[in-house]
Specification:
The chain is an alpha/beta fold. Helices cover about 40% and strands about 15% of the residues. Strand 5, helix 8 and strand 6 form a beta-alpha-beta unit. Helix 7 crosses helix 8. The chain is globular. Bound molecules: NADPH dihydro-nicotinamide-adenine-dinucleotide phosphate (NDP).
Length: about 325
């Protein structure tokens, strides 16, 4: 058990009165980012190449603008070249596909990301398929999803679920033989999360149950879990009474909850009722500062992977 990751933020005093150990995603993400920055520096020095990430934002959704800004800022911090493409809300599907096509052919860009959700006139599935699978750093393209499902672990992995597995590994929490219950079956979190936990080897080998909005007796299922991963987008849905003693609780949810006492008029809440769950859990992720920072860290890692894969391909062609 590694106590080095206990949260050091302002919540710490309150949290320490509870029994759960805090999985400090912020500190773990910083460690991952340091490794990535080293890889970037080495690529630059030894190969003369800079990994490049293009982030496309269609429209003016405020939350999406925040996410895009964070991704671009992280690129800057790690030495990754970033290209931010902002398109108006009324952008047509064809116009967006054209932009993606240009980036697919741009050798300075190794990763392409289209910030979700796009405006309603745009078919998200078509956008996902338009991105060159070799530049699909979100790991949304059917080819990469398929590879991940088949057990390939050297290509791209989906950022949020991959981040969760890194959190578990860094805290020395084994998933082997454990009953892991995933709440949510979305294509970006729930399904790939279940696939990684089900895969063979490190941070896999779990017995996995996936719950969704049609699941009956959900609390009975979550109470039988060694590890619960909540990704449903419902603030404070999972209560302490729904988990068993010493369960590991991973909260993927990021929800804005109205709160007049906060300067912005809202606060961020996860999908887990933190106070009651932390009284029973052995480990728990806070929101914010848990899974969130890991998602961006893994995106950066995928971008470096994309760059290395492009470089290998080029070297193979030239030899
Ligand atoms: P989606 O809305 O795409 O999916 C939600 C899933 O939860 C669906 O499968 C839905 O079931 C299920 N669900 C909804 N209500 C219930 C319920 N009452 N009981 C059981 N299952 C339910 O959400 P995402 O997967 O995109 O995101 C989930 C959460 O994670 C959100 O809060 C989001 O903001 C956050 N998120 C955080 C990230 C991070 O970096 N930390 C990254 C991505 C997302 P059904 O399929 O039957 O409708």
């Amino acid at each position: 058990m590694d106590l080095g990751y206990k949260n050091k933020n302002r919540e710490t005093e309150k949290l320490q009165s509870m029994s759960a150990q805090i999985i400090d995603g912020k500190t773990i993400a910083e460690e991952v980012n340091r490794e990535t920055a080293e890889e970037v520096a080495e690529l630059k020095e030894k190969k003369g190449i800079v990994p490049g990430l293009a982030v496309i934002l269609v429209g003016e959704d405020p939350a999406s603008q925040v996410y895009v800004r964070r991704k671009v800022k992280m690129c800057e911090q790690l030495g990754i070249y970033s290209k931010k493409v902002v398109l108006p809300t009324e952008t047509s599907q064809n116009e967006l596909l054209q932009v993606i096509d240009e980036l697919n052919h741009d050798p300075s860009i190794h990763g392409i990301l289209v910030q979700s959700p796009p405006p309603p006139q745009i078919d998200e599935a078509a956008v996902v398929e338009a991105v060159d699978p070799r530049k699909d750093v979100d790991c949304f393209h059917p080819e990469n999803v398929g590879r991940m499902l088949l057990g390939e672990r050297t290509g791209f992995l989906p950022c949020t679920p991959w981040g969760v597995t890194v959190l578990l590994e860094k805290c020395g929490i084994s998933t082997r033989g454990k009953h892991a219950v995933v709440l949510g079956r979305s294509n970006i979190v729930g399904k790939p999360m279940a696939a990684l936990l089900l895969g063979k080897g490190a941070s896999g080998d779990a017995t996995v149950t996936v719950c969704h909005s049609r699941t009956e007796n959900l609390a009975e299922i979550t109470r039988s879990a060694d590890i619960v991963i909540a990704a449903i987008g419902k603030p404070e849905f999972l209560k302490g009474s729904m988990i068993r003693d010493d369960a590991v609780v991973i909260d993927v949810g990021i929800n804005r909850v109205e709160d007049a006492s906060r300067p912005k008029g809202y606060r961020l809440a996860g999908d887990v009722e933190y106070e009651t769950a932390a009284e029973k859990a052995s480990w728990i992720t806070p929101v914010p500062g848990g899974v969130g920072p890991m998602t961006i860290a893994m995106l950066m890692k995928n971008t470096v992977r994309a760059c290395k894969m492009a470089m290998n391909e080029k070297e193979c062609r030239e030899n």
